[in-house]
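# nightly structure sweep
# worker-07 picked up a monomer target from the shared queue
# config: single-sequence mode, recycle default, output format = structure tokens
# input follows
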Amino acid sequence: MASAPGLLAFAPHRSGTAALLSDAARRRGMEVAVLPERFRGREDAHYYGGPRFAARVAGPLGVALLEPDDGWLDALPAALTGRAVSRVPLSEARRRTGPFFAKPPTDKSFPAAAHRDGSTLPPPPPGTGDPLVQISEVVDWEEEFRIFLLDGEVRTGSRYARYGRLDPAPLAGHSREAAVRAFVRDLTRECGHTLPGAVVVDVGRMRAPGRAAVWAVVEANMAWFSTVYAADPDRALDVVLRSAGPAALLGERDRPFRREHSTGAAPRETAAPRGAAPRDAVAPREARHSL
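# output follows
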């Protein structure tokens, strides 16, 4: 990707990934700044940070935020998920018996985790009605990899966990790089049109009770709020810039994936990038006997 001029604006929350992307952007000659909103009205802005802060600043910055559909994972063929995944109302999930994994499809209203039964799920937050919850059987992930995709091409990637523990390593040169790339090729060949042109997809080798280990999709996330781990930050930046760039440059292919934003005030952003806690220091939520 050619050197991209313009501004890369960050939400106030800082992380190791923000520092890596800042350095990569400066190497391209980009302006780097931590918001507030003094950059209102610019036509060359890009964004990296949390969704709550983005709800307030995307409009004034003129940035179009791309994200996968909430139901993307449970709509995939079973051959790509390796397990049954579905979204059900929270009230229904709370009545389920037996162990299962549950997480909110988008927000962080409760932690993603395995549950012995539905009684351990929290009630819905006030004013949310009966929100959907993503549920699946409990499985073990042997290794998990984060892939930065640009128009179906693997720009860079990183292992981020082994057996539920954070263990970053570059995809390039990894013993399972060929297998990861082959699986991602199959995924993008069959379902690439269901994803934004710039997106992060997590995949891994998983084992369900009584079944052989298989490659499967963990989930998809917006690149503008995803941790880089050990991926090449310069190549990851290619994906981030496209995933949250000038709305005037948004192509037809990506219009269905544009995130709606609010023009009102938003709560102060406190969450860390997807797949990481503050300082990028704990295992991703899916890695712990999860989806």
